[in-house]
Amino acid sequence: MKVERRAVLERLRDHLTDSDIVVAALAGTTADTYQVVHRPENLYLVGLGMVTQVSLGLALTLPDSKVVSLDTDGSLLLGPSILPVVAASGAENLRIIVFDNEQLFGSRGGAPSQTAAGADLTAMARAAGIRHADTVADEGGVASALERLFSEPGPALLTAKIALAFRAEGPSMDGQENKYRLVRRIEAIRGRAILAPPKP
Amino acid sequence: MKDEVAAEAHRCLTEAGVDFVACMPDSAFLELYQRLEGDSAIRYLQVANESDGVGVCMGAWLGGARPAMLMENTGFALSCYALLRGPAAFGVPMLLLISYRGGFGDERWFSVPFGWATEPLLESLRIQYSVVNEAGDMAHAIAGAVKSMNAMQAPVAVLFPPQLFSEAK
Q1: How do residues A51-65 score in pLDDT, each as one tens digit?
Q2: What is the architecture of the domain spanning A5-190?
Q3: What pTM was estimated for this model as a whole?
Q4: Which residue of A35, B10, B23, B133 sits 20 to 30 Å from the alpha carbon of A127, by its own alpha carbon?
Q5: Quick check: ipTM above 0.90?
Q6: Which residue of B20, B86, B90 is in closest CB contact with A61?
Q7: Angle at Cα B90 formed by Cα A87 and Cα A183, nearest 5°?
Q8: So what CATH class is B3-164?
C-alpha cells in the first residue's frame, strides 16, 4: 500500500515553525498542500524543474529558517542537475520531499514517468552527494521517515512513493499575489525590507 | 574577460547591491567569476545548468537577496523556460549577466546561431537589456539594470560582447 500524499503533509505540519518556508510543485502537490498545510510561508504552483531550485535559493538566503521543497518525480527528472548543486551547497536547512506517483499529471491519469520503469530518485540523490536520502513506500513508515528527515542536518531528501489521487481545490491567488504575500512575510521574519517603496 | 573589465564589473555589481551570484562558468567570464567567488560579501553558487541558476536566483530574491545570474548566451537560450515559468510568471527581479557569443566578428561557427538568437529571444521574453560595448558603459548599464528590475519586478539583462573578453576566449 503506497503512501497518501496528504498523510505526509499532515505529519509535515508538526515539523514546521512559522518562520519556515514551504515551496510546492504545481498541480496536485500545490492543491493538497493548500488543503492540508496552508500557511503564509508557502509558495505554490512552482513549475516543473524549478521547485528544489527555488527552495535552494531560499535556503541559502534564510539560514535561520527551514526550507522544505515539495517536489515531484516529473519535476526532479526534468531538472536533476540541481541535486549535485544542492549537495555541494551544504545547505543544512534544506529538506526535499519528492512525491513520486510514477506518473506525469497523475491526478488526470497521464503517462508513466521513468520512475515507474525503475529510476530511483533517492539513489540519484545519494549518487549526487546528498548523504541523507531515504525512501518511504508505506503509510506506516511516514512518521519515522519524517523524523529522520528533520532530525539530521540537511541537505536531505525523502522520496515518498505515493498513491494516485484526484486533485483538490488549490489556492485562489495567482503567483504574483502569492509572491507579494510571501515576501511581506519574509520581511517580517528577517526584520528588514525586501521590496523598496515605489518611487513617487 | 579583460582584467580591468572584470574589476569594473565587480565594482559596479557591489555598488548596485548585488549580494548573490549564481554562475554557470563560461571562459569569457573567468576573471569576473573568480573575483565574485572570492568576495566574502557575495554568496556565490556554481550551478550545472543555467535553468537551475534562474530558479535559485528566484528563491534568493524571495529570501531577500539581490541576485545575479552569470552565464553564456548559449545557457541563456537554455534557460528561457525557467525565465518564463519562474521570474516572468511570478514577477521576480534578477540581473542576468550574459556573454554575447556569436556576435559581430565571432569566428566560431557554432556560436553564430546564438548570436542571431540572443536579442530576439530577450525581446520575445520581454526582458529589457543593454549591451556593454566598452568598459566605460558598465556602470550605467548595471546600475540602470538593477533599478529597472526592481521597478518592473522582472529580470533585466546586460550583454557583454567579445571585445570585452580576454585574448584567450
Answers
A1: 999 999 999 999 999
A2: 3-Layer(aba) Sandwich (3.40)
A3: 0.97
A4: B23
A5: yes
A6: B20
A7: 75
A8: alpha beta
